[in-house]
Design brief:
145 residues; 6 strands; alpha+beta; two-stranded antiparallel sheet; 4-stranded antiparallel beta sheet; globular
Length: 145
Amino acid sequence: MTGASNVRVSRLGVSRRAPGLCQSLMVLSCVRLSLRFLGLGRTVKIVRWLDRRCAVRAQHDMATARSVEESVAKAAALFPGRALCLEQSLTLYALLRRSSVPARLRLGAQAYPFGAHAWVETNGEPLNDIAEHVAFYVPLEDLLP
């Protein structure tokens, strides 16, 4: 039986499930390969280019966003090796945008001790991390003049 939070109606009126574990694993694998062979800049451009094709709803169901985040977290736990925050965040961002959920990919850094982090926000709140943790990082676009 399909839960109400996993089903949404597309533009054509056809019911469609939110991305699940298998799709999350596939996208996570593609993101890892793209990062390895194309680099960060090209991978982000590809993900952002793909999301331009999807219409974003002004109103979205937060349950859908949480469901997608949960499937990406499960996929990362099952992924061979370790799925880093960048890989998980790019995967989550891509799947949220495919589900018509407005999301923002954030990349941040802290000066001392040096560290970098990636996370996804929706409605201005981190989805795949906690606000107290991302507060240590300055988003990269905020560092540019």
